[in-house]
């Protein structure tokens, strides 16, 4: 049952790819372009289409799975300031991802912004403000733990890769998504299959 965390990144990626293919024409109608403007109403705009409920549910499920993974990570690491702070921030980022279930507003529209569209935008901002700090902080926490030490460099390298791709947008945004999903999957794999757990001091 605990290994359900392994499904989070895989589920998110599969739903994203499948819905993008199925709703390709719909997304193009919103103004999205897979190369020239891949972040224009994507992936949030997938929730506006015919199968939007699937994307909405995926935001919720994936976000909650990340929050649960963060709580397991907190229990696995030694109880110090960095591990506590990093895990807490990762919990908040998972909840922020789940909050993207508030349906976004299309960028091109003739109507005012809706309350759920504003909450969606706020959730996206909160995701960025909690995810990156959580990764940086956890990098320090991993460095202080023998069984997690090799994940420290990997985490910081991921941050060094994803922040520029997140800021630059464009096709680089795909790199951001892939790198983050791989990092979360790596943490879940470690928690589920590592034969040795960290001991508390």
List the helices and strands and how they pair.
Elements: H1 7-22, H2 24-30, H3 52-76, H4 81-99, H5 115-143, H6 150-168, H7 172-193
Characterization of this structure:
The structure is a single chain. By secondary structure, the chain is mainly α. It has one domain. It is built from seven helices and no strands. Helix 1 (7-22) packs antiparallel against helix 7. Mean pLDDT is 91; it is low at 196-201.
The rough form would be described as elongated
Report mean pLDDT, rounded to a whole number: 91
The radius of gyration computed from the alpha-carbon positions, rounded to a whole number of angstroms, is 17 Å
**Sheet of most strands:** none
Count of DSSP helices?
7
Number of DSSP strands?
0
What is the terminal separation in angstroms?
Answer: 28 Å
Helix content: 55-70%
Number of domains: 1
State which percent range the strand residues make up.
under 5%
The arrangement of helices and strands along the chain is: HHHHHHH
Instruction: State the secondary-structure class.
Output: mainly alpha
Low-confidence stretches: 196-201
Short summary:
The chain has 201 residues and is mainly α. The protein has helices at residues 7-22, 24-30, 52-76, 81-99, 115-143, 150-168, 172-193. It is built from seven helices and no strands.
């Amino acid at each position: 049952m605990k290994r359900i965390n392994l499904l989070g990144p895989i589920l998110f990626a599969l739903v994203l790819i499948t819905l993008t293919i199925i709703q390709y024409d719909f997304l193009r109608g919103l103004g999205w372009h897979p190369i020239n403007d891949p972040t224009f109403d994507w992936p949030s705009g997938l929730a506006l289409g015919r199968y939007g409920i699937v994307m909405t549910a995926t935001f919720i499920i994936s976000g909650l799975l990340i929050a649960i993974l963060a709580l397991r990570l907190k229990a696995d690491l030694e109880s110090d300031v960095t591990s506590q702070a990093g895990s807490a921030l990762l919990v908040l980022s998972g909840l922020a991802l789940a909050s993207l279930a508030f349906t976004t507003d299309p960028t091109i529209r003739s109507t005012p912004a809706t309350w759920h569209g504003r909450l969606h935008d706020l959730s996206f901002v909160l995701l960025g403000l909690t995810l990156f700090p959580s990764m940086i902080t956890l990098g320090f926490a991993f460095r202080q733990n023998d069984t997690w030490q090799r994940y420290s460099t990997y985490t910081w390298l991921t941050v060094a890769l994803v922040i520029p791709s997140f800021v630059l947008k464009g096709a680089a945004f795909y790199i951001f998504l892939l790198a983050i999903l791989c990092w979360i999957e790596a943490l879940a794999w470690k928690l589920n299959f590592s034969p040795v757990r960290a001991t508390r001091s």
